[in-house]
Amino acid sequence: xxxxxxxxxxxxxxxxxxxxxxxxxxxxxxxxxxxxxxxxxxxxxxxxxxxxxxxxxxxxxxxxxxxxxxxxxxxxxxxxxxxxxxxxxxxxxxxxxxxxxxxxxxxxxxxxxxxxxxxxxxxxxxxxxxxxxxxxxxxxxxxxxxxxxxxxxxxxxxxxxxxxxxxxxxxxxxxxxxxxxxxxxxxxxxxxxxxxxxxxxxxxxxxxxxxxxxxxxxxxxxxxxxxxxxxxxxxxxxxxxxxxxxxxxxxxxxxxxxxxxxxxxxxxxxxxxxx
Length: 275
Known about the structure:
The chain is α/β, with parallel strands linked by helices.
């Protein structure tokens, strides 16, 4: 492990071939909780909190947060946990990072759920970044106003409506955790700036890893019509495309069984077992 120690909050459970789960921008591993019991029947599941996020490995002082830096730190952390190669599934920013791990030869397979990084123009990027900047600025106020009201399902559904079809399914404590995590991801504005400068994911061949890009059908954050088709068919040569039906951008609470099924169908093809 080259003397590097694993750092940060992470989940580990189950047995079988290793599957790494990567959450989206401003989140933590906790967003994967609905699918964990379904996946760890087949896999040793590792769900880390991403670098630069509350509880995740810190970004070194003076280093600009970029997707490449996050990928470097993530791989170092996974190797410190004894993982040199694994199946990878990720959502949003985690989906982009899962594709980067395929590019670098770390991933045995990839299931990217509505991955970020598919913009082709500045206007396309600005449309995504603007919504994150607004939410980031408003979160302290939203937490102050709604923290005690999160016990009401209609409040959780309203607050999560951009990212989920069924935000009321997120328990109050998890909703509160998610809001605080986004608020406390202090590198978020700088990461958005670097994404705008560097651009989205660059083309690469999906093979030999199996790469499946599963777009959430009701995605309002990174809608397929504007971003998905270009990413699946042009940016990642050889990737397979499919849809997660009836789900919003963050699908784990909308339909955990379907999300788990999509991931397991990918890993089973590589592991050579019946899906």
